[in-house]
Design brief:
Number of helices: 5
Structural class: alpha+beta
Distance between the termini: 31 Å
Radius of gyration: 18 Å
Strand content: 25-35%
Largest sheet: 5 strands, antiparallel
Order of helices and strands: HHEEEEEEEEEHEEHHEEEEE
Shape: globular
Low-confidence stretches: 1-43
Number of domains: 1
Length: about 280
């Protein structure tokens, strides 16, 4: 079995530690946030009400979208995720480190990724010295990625150069080319951060839209490349973007589809929302 997910032929996606607690918290509305925040704060650092930007959940039982990972491309063309700036703050009489920064009119924070057990992942700790490059997982669903990349290879902009025409017989061609990667997870056996990266003409369309959406997309993308943490907010499964044939049955062939419970996400529809992020262990 792959470290990153179940093999495609199994028809399943792997769950992660903390499923039950995370799923329960995911169902809590903002109205009860103060109580949850108070109850969870003593067990670790961070957590509580967290504004975030995600890809919109459009169908199925998932309670909210999956969070964006802002993108930057280095001078050699390798694609990486932006990790928020780290600073020390006083909270509850303690000095702690937090990862947050202002980006695209939003407060981008490491708390965005603290759900479904990912609050235990080394990569979400503010002071973790981790590699921010997007690196190929061991068994990607995309045939192009199987042919061109080995596990751990860094994703390069040239890997996605045919994004305006690319297709794989699932949905329409030219919607956008995807890659399945991990992020901030080098030398990590438990608690990897799975990320889907997409290069699409729709990214520039969203920037041209202006307003809150345009400001965010302009700041969080580069060269029409966007990314998001690919962990379903319903029960912590690993969904697929244009990678699962059965998505057609749920009008999700050109979107992100989670086959475990048929949640559907639109990667090209940013949503501005809040959720109850879990505290990191002390």
């Amino acid at each position: 079995m792959s470290e990153d997910k179940y093999p495609s032929e199994s028809g399943r996606r792997r769950f992660v530690k903390g499923v039950v607690g995370s799923a329960a918290l995911a169902s809590v509305g903002v109205g009860g946030a103060a109580t949850i925040d108070y109850a969870t704060q003593p067990q670790g650092e961070g957590g509580g009400i967290t504004p975030f930007v995600g890809i919109e959940r459009t169908a199925g039982p998932a309670p909210r979208g999956m969070p964006f990972v802002p993108v930057e491309i280095d001078d050699e063309g390798y694609i990486m995720g932006v990790w928020p700036d780290v600073e020390e703050v006083e909270e509850g009489g303690l000095t702690i480190e937090v990862a947050r920064m202002e980006l695209g009119g939003q407060t981008y924070a490491g708390d965005w990724f603290q759900y479904c057990g990912r609050q235990n992942a080394p990569g979400v700790r503010p002071d973790e010295d981790q590699d921010n490059y997007f690196r190929s997982i061991s068994s990607p669903d995309y045939e192009w990625q199987q042919d061109e990349m080995d596990e751990g290879d860094r994703l390069h902009i040239d890997h996605l150069d045919d994004y305006e025409t690319w297709g794989n017989e699932i949905g329409a061609d030219g919607i956008g080319k995807g890659a399945e990667c991990r992020w901030r997870s080098e030398d990590v056996d438990d608690g990897r951060l799975p990320v889907t990266v997409i290069r699409s003409t729709k990214v520039q369309e969203l920037i041209d839209q202006g307003g809150q959406v345009g400001e965010w997309m302009e700041a969080a993308t580069e060269e029409s490349v966007m990314a998001f943490l690919n962990v379903c907010t319903h029960f912590c499964c690993i969904p697929g973007y244009k990678s699962l044939g059965e998505a057609v049955q749920f009008d999700a062939a050109d979107g992100v589809y989670c086959q475990c419970h048929q949640s559907v996400y639109d990667p090209f529809s940013p949503t501005f929302d809040t959720f109850i992020s879990l505290p990191r262990p002390n």
